[in-house]
Structure formats: structure tokens, C-alpha cells
# Entry
Amino acid sequence: MPGQRRQTQAQADQAHGARRLDASETVRVLTSVLLPQVARGAIVRRPAMSGLLAALDADRKATEVLRKMRERHGDDPLPLRLAGRRAALVLSEQDVGRLLEQTPEPFSPGGREKTGALAHFQPHGVLISDHENRPRRRAANETALVPGQTIHPDGDVLAAHADEEALALALALRGGEELDWSRFSRSFHAMARRVVFGSFAADDYRMTALLGTLRAHANWSYLAPARRATADEFLDRVRAAVERAEPGTLAARLTAGTCPHTGRSGDGSGLRPEDQVAHWLFAFDAAAIAAFRSLALLTSLSPKAYAVREEIEDREGLDLPLLRATVRESVRLWPTTLMVIRESTRRTSWREEVFEAGTAFLILSSYFHRDPSRLPYADTFEPEIWLDGRAEREPGLVPFSHGPAVCAGIDSVPLMISLFLRTLVRGGEPTRVDAGGPLPASGLPRSLNHFTLRFSL
# Structure
């Protein structure tokens, strides 16, 4: 009986000591925290909404609302009921650490909303794989992307691809043309296709366009109907490129030891390489955003920017620690993953709360990344925190996630971005020329709309 079920749930909530938001708090959380993230676009950013929310300083307002909720209700995850969906807002950095360390059991990196979104273009991707297939696919991703190793084993090959695309872009801008997001992302995605597949894929703009169409639908998760013909064309195109992958590329490492046509290894497990690569191509858009915002940091008024630019000019080889740290700092300051979600697979106990299986735990990245009560560098450009151990001691700083489901590209992506940016700006005088002007040395804005950034090199 529906009424009896509602009563039973209410009794369970009361027994578990679940706190409840009053009506005004619920409205504030919905309008200031959750709806802006949905409006901006979780899978692909919407330019108009990104601009509007930046103008409204929405990210600052969201973090202030959560801070007040924590002051009033305590550290435990804050229960929410969203159209019948069981959810909880994470308010403590220690709880962030627990959720990410205890992935995938009892906190799954999949979940209803993420599965509904990613299934549009990578139905067999590692993040939404079941317990049977996930270990094999995760291992293959790690073999290709090599997390934990600062310089990728095929770093020289990846560097050659990054250098070639960045140099072509730099030469194209020598006539004084300004570098905007459209021009930058076009070159960056060409670089991404090269490092994934090889030089032959540099001009495959159709692949990226198909993915863009699917990602726009994925913003609506399971509410949007599947575009099967578009998805089939995209995944077929990726599969064909994987089969042609050149030595030293990421796709070649992914499929080493598997049948290139079936993606099956000797033990019969299904890798589905096209789905794993589809996730990389999707993630490279976030990498492009981080790279473009890194340019904004390099052209800022901070003395740290000059130190990074000195490294760019003077340091040879593949190891660019300050520039890689700048990439991580750009993602700390302006997260590309707006909300990290973990869904519980069983009932879990916290300090004073108990949550049922199927609860979606919501981690607002900017709330933890820009917390002035814990981080003296919250609103400043401080790349050294990624080199001296300070960032590692903060469980709430998760620009590439953390734990068993940490982004497998946690090291390879900053490496590729640093190599691309070095070649792009080396020997020049990069300057931010849009209406926003250079970023200040301190008091950095909580939002930075990458769509409106423009630079002169």
C-alpha cells in the first residue's frame, strides 16, 4: 500500500535520527546548490547557462548555502528527498574520503543518474560496469593510462603528437589572431584523437561531433530517449579507429593482448574497447577546459604565474612539475566535475545517521576545493600544494577523484596538457585580452567561464 510504505519510511527515518530541512532550507538547497549544476550541464556545458551562472556568482552562493547547512545540522550527510529519490548532501571532508576510498562497495561510482547519462555513448564504460566486468575494464584502463606514473611509458610518442598540434595552432595565430575557446578546443581535440589513435585521426572531426550530439542528450540522463543510430555510428567509428591504432598510442596499449575485433582476451572477458575510449574522448573535453583555464592562470597577476612561465621557457624534457601542478590547480579552483556522486549498495551507518541502500551521496566539488575555513590558499593560485604534500593531506581536494575509482588519467592528462601548453606559449607573451582582464593575485573568482576567455600569444 503506498500510504503504508510512506508511513514505514517516515518511521524508519525517525528511528535513524534523520535530520530534516525545513521548507525554506529545502528551497535554498534546490535553487542554489542542485539546480545550477543541472542547468550548467553535467555531461557537456551549456554556454548560455554557464555565462549566466558565472554572472550570478552561483558557485559562491552554493558553497555558502552548504556551509550554513553544516553549521546548523552538523557534519553528517544531509538527507534529501528529491521526487522520491533518496539522496544526501555530503558536508564533511572526512566523509568525502570515506565515500571515495570505499568505492565500488558499498559506494558505487555508477548509480541511476550516471548510468542513464553515460549509457547514451558508452553503455559498457568502466564507471557503469557491473561487478563482473568492472575489474577487467579498470585494469585495461590503468594499463593504457598508467596512473601513479608521472611520465607515461610512451611519453615521447604522446609528446610528439601534443607538440605537433600545439605548434600548428601557434603558427596559425602568428598573424595576431586571438585565441578563443572554439579555436583552442578544436586543436586540443585533434591532439586528443592523435594521442588516443594516432596521426590518422587528427582530422576526424566527425567523431567528436557525433560525441557532442550524444553528450547533449546525456545531460538529461535517462529522461532523454536514446539516439541509437547516432550512438551506433559513433561507436563503430571509434571501434574502427581502435583497430588502426598506431604503436605508442593509448588505444594500442588498451587493446594489447586482446582480439582487435571482439575486444576479448584469452580469459574470455569482454573489454569493449570502444566504450572505454569513448569515455576518454568525453573526458578530454574537461581536460580542454582545464587547459584553457590554465592559460588564464599563466596570464594572471600572481607571482606564481611568472615562476611557471620560467619553467616553460627554461626546462627541457617531458617533466614540467610546476606546469602540471598548474593544471591540477585550475581544476581545484574551477572543478570540471561539478558533482561527484556515489550510490550506496547497502545500508550504511555514519556518526548519527543511517542511510538505506540506493542513497545517492552528492559531493559538490567547489564546496570542498574552496573552503577558506580549512584552506588558507582557497582563493589563490598555489600550484605548490600539488608538489609539497599539502593537497594530499586534504581528503576534500579531489580534482581527479580519489580511491579505487580515481580517474585513470590522473597523471597522463596533466602530462599531455603541460606538453601542449608549453609548445603553444613558449617563446611568446601570452596575454588575456577579453573583457575580464588578467586574474588577480588573490581573491580569485569562484566561477571562470571558459567560453568567454580570449588570449593573445
User: Anything to note?
Assistant: The CA atoms of residues 239 and 302 lie 45 Å apart. The longest strand covers residues 339-344. Strands lie at 78-82, 85-89, 107-108, 179-180, 339-344, 348-349, 354-355, 360-364, 431-432, 454-456.
